[in-house]
Amino acid sequence: MNHLKLLQFLFIFSTYSILNGQCPTVTPGYLSGTTSGILLNDTTPAPVLNISPPFLPNTEFIFIHKDSLATDSLGYKIIGTNADGRMVPADYGLTTCSNFSVVAVSFDINQLKVLVDNLFNLNYDANQTCCQFIGSFLSGFCDSIIANGINSSADINNLDDFFTLMSIFADINLDQSSFSIENIILTITQMNDLLPLFGNCSNNVQELCYAIMNTDAAMDHYIVTEPNTPYSVNIAQDTLIIALGDTANLTATFLPNTAIDSLAWHNTDSLSNIHVNTITGEITNTGNTADTAWIVVESLIGCGPTDTIVVILAPTISIKLLNIKKLPFEVIPNPFNNWMKINFNASEGNYLLQLIGITGQLYYSQNQYLSEGNQQIEVDTENIPEGYYFLRIKGSKTKGTQAVFKN
Fold this sequence. Notes:
The chain is α+β, with helices and mostly antiparallel strands and 407 residues long.
């Protein structure tokens, strides 16, 4: 990609229609964050947007292929867009076992329409039109736009038209797979930083407004499956800590529940003193020192989905599997430095927070009585060494574990 040409265009031809040219702060809409199976020729359900960002009247959806990088090498390639977020995998060139995701993008189509009208109708100065000005350093720019069926703002109607414009601006082939979401966000950010410098051709506007949440938790995810085969395998726990001589039985479930399946367990480290029965999932250990193992369970049919549990052999700690509800929580930031904030929804009662090293050493422990509702707990980690840890939160009926890293 010719980034210089893209930046030159973004300098000049982006626009914003709200008075004073500043985008209001909005919360991007997000989807479920869940993974589902879909047959090759079935249609995905309509995505449910949790919120429609104000001031951004248009929301459409991007489909990304999570098994393939875009040619810009910045992220997964975009394979299509549409207004309702529904798609048939076969229509987009996907095959069985392909992984893809749906992402919501909110924007203002009128900004893009004004962009094109500025291009064709405004003058850069008394001696040249905006088209002529752009053409002086990006040869054939306006001709390329016209050749792709864009003659006025009436030809700008959806997110797909936006990709066409970006392709021309970047002087690359008109192929959505050239773009990743990361590249879109990057170029719009660069544009917004530089746009106010270009006078009449930008109509003295300052920003192109959009909202997108580019995280897995904000997308709908799909795996193209065969009938009656699993698309997801899940071990109930993220981490298990055992003492010398302890045993434990790991269990996993798969979705859909009607899938006909068998599971296989294995340790990723053949030299570990922690062992797992490949058929039953029984954990045993033969060592006399601390050890850590990543145990993987895999479906033997279908696309072979997997899940992983970290098993820690700690001579001084014995924590058995508990049949309690999994507690989701968020750690900000992660990686962390001298502090971290933990957000989660609590039921009233006592909660134990622990930070455990990968060898089982306990670095932090705190008991708190919490009221019901959303909680934010700040932890001082200034005196904790750099490295990987497991942050565990345990209530009377819930428990959650998450890997964290101090840099």
